[in-house]
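User: Show me sequence and structure for the first protein, then do the same for the second.

Assistant: Starting with the first protein.
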Amino acid sequence: MDNEPQFEGEEMKLPEDDSAETSEDTGNKKNSSALIIFLFVLLGIILAGMIYWYNTAFEAVPADTEITRPALENNNEPETDTATAQTDGFSAMSTSDEITALEADLESTNLEDLDAELLQIEAELVAE
């Protein structure tokens, strides 16, 4: 029942022909080191790209690009009289929060020309 090999008194020897195994080990080491170098270079390129993207995406907008409204004398908009009349009508609305007062304010609001005015504004923006 004792199937274990007996090595007592025998001398241990290394294999004589190990040249094939040695060349495979060095080949694997060369391949794995080349792969690691490639992965580090790839990681460096990705990190550099992310840093470049972050710097360009979150650039500060120059402060001198503020949009200012023209003064009343320089205002050449043709809708000034209409806009003034309509805004005066809005101030005549009730301050009550009763349903009947809200319905009356809603019915007095003129929304008939809203589409035409929006088309006119869009045409002016496209013309610029």
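Switching to the second protein now.
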Amino acid sequence: MMFERYQKVVRCSAGHLYTSIWMWGGSIKALRLGSRRYQRCPVGRHWSMARVVDASSLTPAEREQAAAIHDLPIP
């Protein structure tokens, strides 16, 4: 996959975990606000602030949960 290295675990402001393409240089599917983004959460199906989460700080179950759900495949 072309964007595989940009696949990051993300947590929305409601606490949902999912995987998103997170490129530090830009985004066309979210509004960038510093290190956070306002984007659609595919878990809760709502718009919220999201941030990258250090995957090593998550439990194996949380990492599995995040890997199972991806947002839109466009950067």
